[in-house]
Request: fold
Amino acid sequence: MAEARSVEANGVDVIIAQGFEAGGGASGAQIGTAFLGCLEAAVSPLHRAQLRTAADDGTELTRAFTGRPARASRNRFITEMAATESLEFPLQGSLVGPL
Reply:
């Protein structure tokens, strides 16, 4: 976000933001996280507050939740699971679902 604000302040009209894991040639966008702040989203107040205060460098890729690579906010669970091997998708989700 800091870099985006900086280039906007210096006159840039368009910003293309993507993680290094992104592909190319897209005709649409998936912006699911942005909608978690909406009142209609079934998100706890604590989670919603965390999303509002998230920092640019506060995420990482992890397989800890589903067994597939996904970007998530860095937290104790992700840090402690980093050295373990996840089960294949969708089995990993059945283990962490209750969390």
In short: The two ends are 29 Å apart (CA to CA). DSSP finds five helices and two strands in the chain. The chain has a mean pLDDT of 84.
